[in-house]
Amino acid sequence: MATYLIKRFFAMIVTLWLIITLTFFLMHALPGSPFNDERNTSEAVQKNLIAHFNLDQPVSVQYIEYLKSIVQFDFGPSIKKSSQTVNDLLGRGFPVSFELGMVTLVVAILSGILLGVLAALKHNGVIDYLAMTIAVLGISVPNFVLATLLIQQVAVNWELLPVATWKSWRHMVLPTLALATGPMAIIARLTRSSMLEVLTQDYILTAKAKGLTPFKIVFKHALKNALLPVVTVLGALAAGILTGTFVIEKIFAIPGMGKYFVDSINNRDYPVIMGTTIFYSALLIFLLFLVDVAYGILDPRIKLHKKEGR
Amino acid sequence: MEAPKQQDTSYTQPNILDEWFVPKKANKDDAEAVVRPSVSYWKDAWHRLLKNKLAMLGLVCLVLLVLMAAFGPIIAPDSAKTTVLQNQNQPPSFEHWFGTDELGRDVFTRTWEGARISLFVGVMAALIDFIIGVTYGGIAGYKGGRTDHYMMRFVEILYGLPYLLVVILISVVLEPGLFSIIIALSITGWVGMARMVRGQVLQIKNYEFVLASQTFGTKTSRIIRKNLLPNTMGPIIVQMTLTVPSAIFAEAFLSFLGIGIQPPYASWGSMANDALPVILSGDWWRLFFPAFFISLTMFSFNVLGDGLQDALDPKLRR
């Protein structure tokens, strides 16, 4: 276990380093300068700006400097918003995005599992077809489409809930719904198929023969084993929710990290693009690592330290 | 032959004559002959797919979508770029089936122009994934050993990169446009295909027919092409069918963020993005049509992919 963890940890560092390098050189390969915009700044001001952001140094020196500052969790200043650093933006945006992401994840997991279990218990019944219809729709309808449709119907036509910003729980309902439907659909499908498989196992028959209540059979005996496949996709789901926050925060005008990221793309604010990309990647890679470890702990049949091979 | 009379209360033995039964002349050559034409793997899979109603629905929808993408802009009254200022923001009518946008452009035409772009991006991304992924995975799986080890380490690192983030990053760097999107989508997209093909090849290369081929001195490239790949075609096709909707989603996502297809060209994602400011004023048709057709396309590819998976992989069937 320990050797596996160390190996995975180093693989994580290598991936992260690759991402930092990739982002850095991609951003520096771009033609033009971020200061070439419609405002006519004098040459002296331009020179000062370039010197201020170290852009007069050779690329290799800049790269080393950037790596050094990243290691110290300093993502540098924003070029377009002069008084702010990328760290400021992350510090302000991350808590909001984290809240949205976490609430979404919890809602998606709980409702997905519930839907999947109900569908499996009433296999080929009305609830099954209903649940699977919801699941197929959830996979087919992109989150930004769902979000705009929700705004149009619930917020504009029916005037039930507010559309924009992030203040009370009522502001959270629509974004969460828009973001959670896709992951929920995936979890529901997975739970259903693995529940159907587990319910035919002998130990479920034993549990029934012992006269346990259906509730206990489902939630104590069946679900525990049926959930393993769900754990494997959690990493991918988290990635989906994370990238989903870009569009959802844009649509609902939520002041989170995703909104800053999209703004920085549209403004070509390179340090912010680099900083947020690296931060997001680090977050995702760490999440994938956690999921792997959790899977190893939950399923004793998987031996993490065994040499990989299939 | 007469049926025994049922009216009788006592059952009487029907009159069975011995000469009705003639022993068949045994013929050694005929005994082993196959009477019916053999059902090939593909035919068998096709029959299974035909029985899957949802997958067939997806297939029919896709055929219709492709036909409309091909002929929709032709039968439409205006070209996608024609702006008629008198016709701004018209709701759907007999003249403009899907209404018009704020520049007076016909939404029906733009929807099918968008369909061309979305389908093209999806299919191209799947094709490039196929070419790179199958070559890479095939070589890694067949060579095995150290080559495989290093090739797969590289793939693992790429696999760890968050897909949409890389796509966004590449799209920011490249000039926005159709080919930049396709490049951005395929730059790490082939990794999943390579992993899958490698796993399959690792299994199949140990079968006897491959050994037989090797003893004949067949060249490696021929073994991969003729012996290994045809046997992995099922999972490859499934993977490609599922790549298309995710590429279409990614393109719509990029265009929605404003770094995908640029005006005057339309894509479903950019049309949805353009519709965002006007839905508050009740111009529902601007959003509804692109949104509906993205969803329909994703739905069709997903259910078809699921159906193909069940049809092509009998081992997985329950």
TrEMBL record, chain A:
<feature type="transmembrane region" description="Helical">
    <location>
        <begin position="128"/>
        <end position="152"/>
    </location>
</feature>
<dbReference type="InterPro" id="IPR035906">
    <property type="entry name" value="MetI-like_sf"/>
</dbReference>
<keyword id="KW-1003">Cell membrane</keyword>
<feature type="transmembrane region" description="Helical">
    <location>
        <begin position="9"/>
        <end position="30"/>
    </location>
</feature>
<feature type="transmembrane region" description="Helical">
    <location>
        <begin position="278"/>
        <end position="298"/>
    </location>
</feature>
<feature type="domain" description="ABC transmembrane type-1">
    <location>
        <begin position="94"/>
        <end position="291"/>
    </location>
</feature>
<feature type="transmembrane region" description="Helical">
    <location>
        <begin position="172"/>
        <end position="191"/>
    </location>
</feature>
<keyword id="KW-0472">Membrane</keyword>
<dbReference type="Pfam" id="PF00528">
    <property type="entry name" value="BPD_transp_1"/>
</dbReference>
<keyword id="KW-0812">Transmembrane</keyword>
<dbReference type="GO" id="GO:0005886">
    <property type="term" value="C:plasma membrane"/>
</dbReference>
<dbReference type="GO" id="GO:0055085">
    <property type="term" value="P:transmembrane transport"/>
</dbReference>
<keyword id="KW-0813">Transport</keyword>
<feature type="transmembrane region" description="Helical">
    <location>
        <begin position="226"/>
        <end position="248"/>
    </location>
</feature>
<feature type="transmembrane region" description="Helical">
    <location>
        <begin position="100"/>
        <end position="121"/>
    </location>
</feature>
<dbReference type="Pfam" id="PF19300">
    <property type="entry name" value="BPD_transp_1_N"/>
</dbReference>
<protein>
    <submittedName>
        <fullName>ABC transporter permease</fullName>
    </submittedName>
</protein>
<comment type="similarity">
    <text>Belongs to the binding-protein-dependent transport system permease family.</text>
</comment>
<dbReference type="InterPro" id="IPR000515">
    <property type="entry name" value="MetI-like"/>
</dbReference>
<dbReference type="InterPro" id="IPR045621">
    <property type="entry name" value="BPD_transp_1_N"/>
</dbReference>
<keyword id="KW-1133">Transmembrane helix</keyword>
